Amino acid sequence: MKRMMVQLTEEQLKALKELAKARHVSVAKLIRESVATYVAKAPKELTREEKRQQMLNALDKIEKAQFHDIEGKTDLSIHHDKYLAEIYS
Q1: The pTM is what?
Q2: Residue 31 belongs to a domain
């Protein structure tokens, strides 16, 4: 283990000492456990390939999604002229 100096507020140190006493462990052990928990839950930085794969997956979901208007038509971008002609005739 490596030794390091950490500065805590009086309130933080008091709370740690009380918790350590209640659990019958050292303050140092509580700090190590806290750091381990924090590091385990911290979001990791994605690699370029992971970011690329996430984007491709999102695009694939969009491509497979069925977008429709109020009437349920899914081909508005293709046949919009036909539908407009029907509405105005």
Answers
A1: 0.52
A2: yes
